[in-house]
Amino acid sequence: MTELTTIRQLAERYDTLLFDSYGVLVDEAYGLTGARELIDWLESTGKSYYIVTNDASRSIPSRAGKFIEQGVPVPEHRIINSGCLIPRFFRNNNLVGAPTVVFGSPDAYEHVAEGGADILPHAQLEDADVFVLADDAGYDWRTSMNDLVTTLNRKILAGESFKLLLPNPDIIYPSGERAYSFAAAALVDMLESALVRLFGDDPAYRFTRLGKPFAPIFDEAVRRSSESGAGASFVMIGDQLETDIAGANAYGIPSAIVTTGINRLHTTQELGLLRETVRPVYLLESLSTG
Question: φ and ψ at 33, to 5 degrees?
Fold first, then answer.
């Protein structure tokens, strides 16, 4: 069964707290109830914590600035986003210098440039070996996705290899009170479905995902916590069963669900009926530290 708990109880039980961003601390415009007080308390007590967000559309300084605008001042060194994982992906996969096309914001381009990629304009899709779908904004997605699936089709038929990267696996995110927006993963689902229809379910034609629920972003949180001298126990606090909770569970980190954001189940009884892969260990009814 899922256990009802509080932030203070989690802080006493675990060395490092990991928080999702959208739907837990903030929405698109504002900090959520209790978020400012929570961050102030964590900073004042010296508790180890990180914001672990799938957002790849902003640099870390930009994300910290946005937090300040939202009234939740999170220091830069406390932020881990899926965008900051892109450089390591390029280095680990011997893609430094690889001709790459990026779909996303200017900050997303910066993440890819930090990985040493040779970034090409969208007009040179045919010349690219790597395709990074970092965000749903900053380009005409309908035209771009049509051009991309056509290019990939040609490359597959010609026997050419390529890499596909999706930093942010979120399909939707909270953009306001009872308001939601589609994220880049919705476009990737469409692209992958098209490639399956054309060529069958070949893993070579699927995107590598860096954010929750996949391991790379948790690896980064563990690495940073270890470097800071914090202990080895973690808890992941999020609002999405399919990313925050499933990712933590698969990684072996206890998980806690909040009653804001995407989460639709608000009682321990409802949560206890879920299959084990997406069942949170804890339920948090508020961010209050009182």
Answer: -55, 125
Residues 248, 236 contacting (CB under 8 angstroms): yes
Question: Which residues does residue 247 pair with via DSSP β-bridges, in sequence order?
Answer: none
Top CATH class, 85-209: alpha beta
CB 145 within 8 A of CB 118: no
Distance CA 41, CA 37 (A): 6
- Residue 56 CA to residue 214 CA, distance in Å, equals 15
Nearest-angstrom CA–CA distance, 235 and 275: 19
CA distance readout (Å), 28 to 166, 254, 264: 21, 27, 19
Kindly provide the residue ranges of all beta strands, DSSP E only, lying in the chain, ordered along the sequence.
3-5, 16-19, 48-53, 79-81, 99-103, 118-120, 130-133, 163-166, 172-176, 179-182, 208-209, 234-238, 255-258, 282-284
Task: Tell me whether the CATH fold assigned to 3-54+212-284 matches the one assigned to 85-209.
Answer: yes
The reported pLDDT for the residue numbered 2 is 95
Q: Provide the token pair at 183.
A: 């994220």
Cα–Cα distance list, 109 to 26, 57, 85, 186, 197 (Å): 24, 9, 13, 20, 30
Mean pLDDT, the chain cut into blocks of 10 residues (290 residues total): 96 97 91 96 97 94 96 97 96 97 95 97 97 92 96 97 96 76 92 96 96 97 92 94 97 97 92 96 94
* pLDDT of amino acid 202: 95
Q: pTM for the full model?
A: 0.91
Q: Give me the pLDDT at residue 273, please.
A: 93
If one looks up domain 3-54+212-284 in CATH, what number appears? 3.40.50.1000
